[in-house]
Design brief:
four-stranded antiparallel beta sheet, binds magnesium ion, alpha/beta, 607 residues, 2 domains, six-stranded mixed beta sheet, single chain, binds adenosine-5'-diphosphate, Rossmann fold
Length: 607
Amino acid sequence: MKLSNTTAQNSFKYGWLLSRIFPYIKPYMLRIICGFLVAIPLGLLDGVTAFALKPYMDYVVGKQDWIFHILGHEFTLSWQIFAFIIPFGVILFAGFQGVLRYLNDYISAWTSQRITNDVKMDLFHRLIYMDPQFFDENPSGIIISRYMNDPQTASAGIVDQIKTITTSIFGALGLIAVMLYSSWKLALIGVLVLGVAFVPVALIRKRIKETSNKNMVIGGNITTNINETYSGNKVMAAYELQSRQENYFRDQIWKSFNINMALTKRAAWMSPLMYLIASCGIAVVLGYGTHLITSGQMTAGAFASFVTSLLLLYKPVKTLGNTLTGIQTIFVAMGRVFELFDLKPSITNKKDAIEMKDLNSRIEFKNVCFEYIPGHPVLRNLNLSVNKNETLAIVGNSGGGKSTLVNLIPRFYDIKSGSITFDGVDIRDLTINSLRHNIAMVFQDNFLFTGTIRENIMMGNPNATEEELELAIESAHLQEMIAELPDGLETLLGERGLTLSGGQRQRVAIARAMIKNTPIVILDEATSALDNKSEAIVQKALDNLIKNKTVFVIAHRLSTIKNADRIAVITEGELVELGNHEQLMSIENGQYRALYEMQFRKQEALV
Ligand SMILES: Nc1ncnc2c1ncn2[C@@H]1O[C@H](COP(=O)(O)OP(=O)(O)O)[C@@H](O)[C@H]1O
Ligand SMILES: [Mg+2]
């Protein structure tokens, strides 16, 4: 599943998207409703100022007292009182509105962050269980962009937009109410014109979606580029690749610029168009309003109040217009987010998978065929049986499929056909956890996590005792190195454990495997980064590690290979020879013998 190719197919299915995000919104419903309740008066209060203009104009400017009747009694409010009250009233309302706005902002920031957190955590939970194949296919930048940036846009956006939309809608409604109160005829004209002003928004939805998808891919490419510049900084410096990285970066930035400008070219006329339509409306209203006033159907105050409302109405309407375009981006991001939720790892537990307890007799490969890319076989019809507590060395040409073979054992990848069985049980019938629980692996390039050396070793078995830890350190011949470090076992390792040399990293990894103490051990060129002297030490460490274990060891060192019970020669994905050192050496024109002549004799001479 290549994430850069998926295009948020469902981003226009608004109902479906909302139903998917609803479970995340639900726990915060009460708060969201509170925010909503605050947003209503907050919006409506916009109308109050406009509304206040009518009595101000009619009574204060016209110097008229207000006479009104309650229960048959006549009351009079003098115009001086209005002149006094109204300005204070305006301030009071502004203060009240300020408090509401603060509450509204606070509630919506809180809820949107909480929802975003929940979505991100759920997505990350899925990410960590994806197959190696998923990580093979997708560069780091795309992963970051899809798993971190999109949920932020999608879920933070949705709450913010709900807030903006409700305040704008109620703002507009309040003002429209004032307009209706002032003159329903004029109001009708105003509202009609505004409705027309919204039409263009619908027209550019698709383009916004395309732009958003393209921007996501570019954002991902840029992040990958920065990650590679970081991780590959030495290779970059050594091969003077700075300009290559820079050109790629520049290229992506420009692409993004062009894509965004293309959208702006199409979308930016919307706002002026809305202005134009709106001003036509205002022109009509002014003309008709003059008629209404001169014919005595409307007071000057009502007209002032109306025009003010109409002008104030522009703000919420414009906000709504912008929001409707902005919300497209959010729905597209949501579409991408829920696409990720629907990704299923291809390697999963069978429904009635059983727990693997121990290895009792043998591991068998039967007619195993495997390919990473359909149509490009990497392992062909491989048959192999390894007995409990046997050590099998695997040798062969580089790229022949040795690493692939051992990666199939913990089910990093599933085979295309054939079977791999533990004691006769297909590994696909075992739970993944229990299967991997029985296997310890040491690789050529061992990844150490940010954390202390102790933490990195204890990852093999978090429940290990202090004695077991000591033993693992001793067996991996790490004690001297640790003793020299200022913080000893508590020394922090950098992002990639860069403070350690390759050989030191391998020994930490060996200790990690040692402390896991599993019946099956897989060593994939686990000593390749060691010099001859430390190799001799680590060899002893490995001897400790593989004692009474079933071991697959891919090695370049003759001693490791010679000591193995049997040796499998893998060439171009096929098992071509199998036997112990003497047996394989005795094959005329044998591949092992050729390999031995080429590589190992030299080593033997050195020792
Ligand atoms: N993750 C992967 N995706 C696609 N092809 C791969 C992957 N890993 C290895 N290959 C290919 O599979 C073949 C066998 O690789 P590998 O098992 O690593 O060889 P070896 O360990 O014997 O050197 C090679 O042609 C390699 O290009
Ligand atoms: Mg390999």
